Amino acid sequence: MKFSKDFKRQMVPEWIEAYVDYDGLKRILREILHYNLSKKRETPLKSLEKKLSLHRTLSGLHRHTNGDVENQVTREGREIEIEFFRKLDEELNKINTFYKEQIEVVMDESTLLNKQLDALIALRLKVRSSCSNGACSPEHQEMGSLNSSSEVEMSEHRALEVSSNSLSGSEITDVILQGINQDDESTSVLENNTIVKSNGRPEEVGNNSTNQQGDPLEILERVKIRNTLESPLDTIKGVFKDSKHDDLCFKKDELKKVEAKLRLAFIEFYQKLRLVKQYSFMNLSALSKIMKSYEKITSRREARLYMKKIDNSYIGSSDEVNNLLERVEATFIKHFSNSNIQKGMKSLRPKTKKEKHSVTFWSGCFSGFSAALLIAVALRIETKKLMEKEGASYTVNIFPLYSIFAYIVLHLLIYAADIYFWRRFKINYPFIFGFKPGTELSYREVFLLGTGLAVLSLSCFLGNLYLDLGSTTQRYKTLTGLFPLGLVAIVMIILFCPFNIIYRSTRFFFIKSLFRCLCAPLYKVTLPDFFLADHVTSQVTAIRSLDLYICYYGLGERSQRESKCHGHGIYNVLYFAVPVIPFWLRFLQCIRRLFEEKEAMHGYSSVNYLLTIVAAIIRTICELKKGMAWMVLALVSSSVVVIVATYWDIVFDWGLLRRHSKNPYLRDKLLVPYKSVYFAAMALDVVLRIAWMQLVLEFKLHSLHRMAITTVVSCLEITRRGIWSFFRIENEHLNNVGKYRAFKSVPLPFNYDEEEEESSKDD
Fold first, then answer.
1. Gap between the Cα atoms of 319 and 407, Å rounded
2. Residue 100 and residue 752: Cα distance in Å, rounded?
3. Which helix (H) or strand (E) holds 236?
4. Separation CA 67–CA 56 (nearest Å)
5. Which member of 28, 261, 467, 542 lies 3.0 to 4.6 Å from 407 by CB, making a disulfide possible if both were Cys?
6. What is the dihedral of CA 741, 747, 748, 749, to 10 degrees?
7. 655 phi and psi, to 5 degrees?
8. What is the pLDDT of residue 94?
């Protein structure tokens, strides 16, 4: 693999703009190469004439136009090389500045983690002494004073000091440019200027905070538990309490929660250090490659001098990251892995996920099976004329029981397509969704799940059609009524299976996010939560199909008559509630975010979902009562929702329609190289939103059955949501890139009194 491809592949997506412009430097080198090749193609006679012309020009004997042109050609090569080193200086300064900023951030965070670890050690001592003696005994206090955390050294380091004997960066560049202008004297200039490199070892300042503070148990007097309102109980307590911090209760359960949070904080900090180290290594490698190419093209020795300048720069000589990495490893192994090196390093360095050929193989097999089963189902429906009037009863009552799986399969396939394009355009979706490293599914794996579910559902549906409508299989009609219920049972068993099969980590992540959505607003809202809730709003038709399962199997209406279901009050309540519940949950999430983040945008978003709830209720009443007045109200309310929701999708979720951006009516930054894609997506979003109005207006399309129309419109809504997902995550990624936000913020368990005072001063 070429270095340029490997360089792009290993870039931190959110830091792309902070990396060396490798392609730009290579482009200038190609200009130098083309210039040198053009000089070599000159004949000896023309070369002699040019030298004579240059000599006359310099001596003042010849000042005609030809001499000026030849002089300009001679200066062209020097100007290109000067431009190259000017660009090189700019890139070196850029990566030095960014790297120094990141070092300052990690050093501040290491100091904060050090204080958190001191509090954890003190809390452990206190809990152990309380468990053994009922109160903290003097012996345990002496144990606490034995500098139990002195082995954890994550103190701040001094900035690297360059020796006064070394040349500054600008002086080195001047020397190099002087060498370019004086080809014959470049060797002597370089030999007469030596550079003294700093040792690159940062000196430590201060000791461990525990040593400065004496008895670690005294720390607990100034420490409180930071309440992040992450659980329903915490949220309910937070409503009745003004303080966001709780006093320590010195219980084992509290200690376990604190250890879990701090353990996760150390893992995230370690990953951050690894990315900073990788950033340094890749940029230094890129500069080294560039200078080797320059030396090869020009046959000059300036490359060695400039590499010394790079080595003496902050990014080339700083060693803080390596020291912190070693100390974090030692600390984590000692305090969070019971001194088990293998276990500790496994937690700190999770294995990268590898693509499996079996996934591709089974995806192809399931795709072929699905296509064959779909053709068989279509032929069976056409043979039995189920889409005509005599088969209408069967279509209305049985198809919805299986259509829910069709919607889920379509959703999975579109999600697989989204993942494919996210990866293609370097969108860091695992970080955005907060997936545990190595557990995120690739588009092939999601496609495998979709096609596998398609084979399972189509097989049951085809068996149902064959046994229920066959002339010789009427005695199995009672058995076929259990096929849909059995299919639901199989899917639920797979979803909640506790064994480590069929992507358990992803299944549990989905279940956890879904549960948090259902419990809104009792949980803190994260991006996966409201992203999933938005997708659930596009599955209203699929969720409504669950009403029939309740009617057929819960209320005893196995006669497969939907009209009888409306005779039950429970069914009618669910029929009204199902279209409202997804939007109501989103409304509650927006209210929670409005109170926590204090941003008016979340309030406007909640109004949007409230209008959708009103439109859904009116539309349901119109569907049942069939009155002209209700039709007009449904049309007006739905039209308002379509206009507001479309504007919200394009402007707020996608970040488009910016009049004064670099790309008119788009964003300043675009990941898809073709602008027409964004305009097509906006137009398609409007069209698909209007298509949703068909469920309200119910146009009489004689060539299609009503159930078929509903199915098509629902599939279009799922497709619209898939398109929305791509541009929504793209916009989120670009927001992270703009803020260089490449790390997940982990809430720390402890709050010190001085931190609380500082935060109150800031407020």
1. 54
2. 28
3. helix 232-240
4. 8
5. 542
6. 180
7. 70, 25
8. 95
**409-438 pLDDT, tens digit each:** 999 999 999 999 999 999 999 999 999 888
Query: HSE-up of 325 (CA within 13 Å, CB side)?
Result: 16
* H/E stretch holding 387: none
Give the distance, in angstroms, between the CA of residue 608 and the centroid of all CA atoms in the same chain. Answer: 26
Runs of H (alpha helix) within 540-599: 540-549, 562-565, 569-577, 581-597
* Per-residue pLDDT, 24: 92
Report which secondary-structure segment, H or E, holds 716: helix 706-738
CA-based nearest residue to 397, from 470, 481, 487:
481
Count H helices and E strands in the chain, helices first.
Answer: 32, 3
How far apart are the C-alpha atoms of 153 and 136, rounded to whole Å? 27
In this prediction the pTM is 0.83
**82 lies in some domain:** yes
User: Which residue is it, tokens 């003004």?
Assistant: 242
* CA–CA separation, 664 and 661 (whole Å): 6
Task: Using the Cα atoms of residue 294, residue 295, residue 300 and residue 306 in order, give the sign of their dihedral.
Answer: positive
Distance from the first to the final alpha carbon of the chain: 52
Angle at 598 between CA 594 and CA 599, to 5 degrees: 80
Contacts of 143 (CB under 8 A, 6+ apart): 125
Task: Look at residue 185 and give its three-state secondary structure.
Answer: coil
Q: Has residue 29 been placed in a domain?
A: yes
Encoded tokens for 18: 């902070």
**Cα 630–632–636 angle (5° rounding)?**
115
Location of structure tokens 């002089």? 71
Does a cis peptide bond (omega within 30 degrees of 0) precede residue 400? no
With H, G, I as helix, E, B as strand and everything else as coil, classify residue 68: helix
323, 56 in Cβ contact below 8 A?
no
DSSP state of 157: B
Burial status of residue 493 (CB atoms within 10 A of its CB: 0-12, 13-18, 19 or more): exposed
Q: Is residue 559 part of a domain?
A: no
Which range marks the domain in which residue 249 is found? 3-348
Distance CA(698)–CA(626), nearest Å, equals: 11
Total count of domains within the chain: 1
pLDDT per position as a tens digit, 638-684: 999 999 999 999 999 999 999 888 999 999 999 999 999 999 999 99
Contacts of residue 182, defined as CB under 8 A and 6 or more positions apart, other chains included, come to: 189
Q: Which residues contact 374 (CB under 8 A, 6 or more apart)?
A: 454, 458
For residue 580, tell me if it sits in a domain: no
Question: To which H or E segment does residue 198 belong?
Answer: none
Q: Transcribe 247-262 into DSSP letters.
A: -----HHHHHHHHHHH
Which one, of 302, 290, 282, lies nearest residue 27 by Cα?
290
Q: Distance between CA 289 and CA 277 in Å, rounded?
A: 18
513, two tokens: 């996010």
Long-range contacts from 338-347, C-beta under 8 angstroms, 24+ separation: 347/263, 347/267
- The alpha carbon of residue 486 and the mean position of all alpha carbons in its chain are separated, in whole angstroms, by 36
Given a contact cutoff of 8 angstroms between Cβ atoms, the answer to whether 419 and 513 are in contact is: no
- Per-residue pLDDT of 37-73, as tens digits, reads 877 665 454 555 544 454 444 444 344 444 554 455 4
**Cβ-contact 142, 215 below 8 angstroms:** no
Planar angle of CA 368, 370, 376, nearest 5 degrees = 105
- Whether the CB-CB separation of 301 and 190 falls below 8 Å is answered with yes
User: What DSSP designation does 354 have?
Assistant: -
